[in-house]
Structure formats: structure tokens, C-alpha cells
Amino acid sequence: MVNRDIRRQTRECAMQLLYEMEAHKDFSEVRRTSFIKRINQLRDYDDQDSGNEASLDNIDVNYFNRLVKTVEANQSEIDQLLESASENWKIDRIDKVDLAVMRLSIAEIKYMEEIPNSVSINEAVELAKKYGSGDSGKFVNGVLGRIVKITEGKNT
Asked: Which residues, in sequence order, are CB contacts of 29 under 8 Å at separation 6+?
């Protein structure tokens, strides 16, 4: 698996955790640790028949933790930005999958300068298409495009 694929899988796992945390209103370290253990258990189960060594080799655990912690530490600012860019959509009205995807992408756009905005948006749109509703990809793309314009406007 190439680095790009590992990063994609890492984002997917981070999005799933953020979704779970939002659904349970539990943003604790215990939930994150439990989530990682469940990933290991699932991979252990899948790898029993294939003879592969079970591990978290398919995700970058450091990047996973960095993403989730960045969202947690900046969630109120991320949510304010989301509401201002989503035109008449309050956070509680946004689909929870779309919300998790966009929080993740906004964390990359706003706080991780080494990730190109276009990569973050593209990955978010793919996650939204995979896990969200029929219009999630378009909605996520539009909102994140506005967010990039807002954040770039502040930097000029």
C-alpha cells in the first residue's frame, strides 16, 4: 500500500471515529483508544484466514491522532467556520457523516499547511460520496470550497 493509500485509509478511520464521537457526544481519549482497539480486532479477525500479520499497518496512527486531536482542540472554531460557509445550515441540521467529513477536512485546511487544500477537499468529497447521502459529495465540495475562500481571504 502506497503512502497516499495509507493517508486515505487514515482519514477514513478518523472520519469514522469523529462520527462515532459526535453520535455519542463523547470526545474522550477512552473512546479514541477503544476505537483503535476495535480496528485491531477487526483486522485480526480478517487476517486469520489470510495468514497476514495483524497490525495497524494500513493507517498512520500518528496522523490519525493528530487529525482527531486537531478537530477536538479547534472544534468550536471549525464549527463556526462551517456554519458561516454552509449558508443557512446550523451544525445540528448537517448530516452527521457530512459533519464528520467536513470537520476533518477543515482541520487539514486550516491547521495542516503541509496538506494541499485541493487534496483535502478531494478526499473529503470521496468520503462523503462513499458514506453520505446522494448529494453529500456536492454539498461537502461546495461548503469546503467556500471555506477555502474564507481562510485564504484572511491570509491575504
From this structure: none
CA dihedral (82, 88, 92, 98) positive or negative? negative
Model confidence, pTM:
0.85
Evaluate whether 145 touches 105 at the Cβ level (below 8 Å). Answer: no
Rounded Cα distance between 21 and 64, Å, is: 14
Question: Position 131: which residue type?
Answer: Y
Cell output for 11: 482519514
Structural domains for the chain:
3-155 (1.10.940.10)
Q: How do residues 40-79 score in pLDDT, each as one tens digit?
A: 776 655 555 544 433 456 788 899 999 999 999 999 999 9
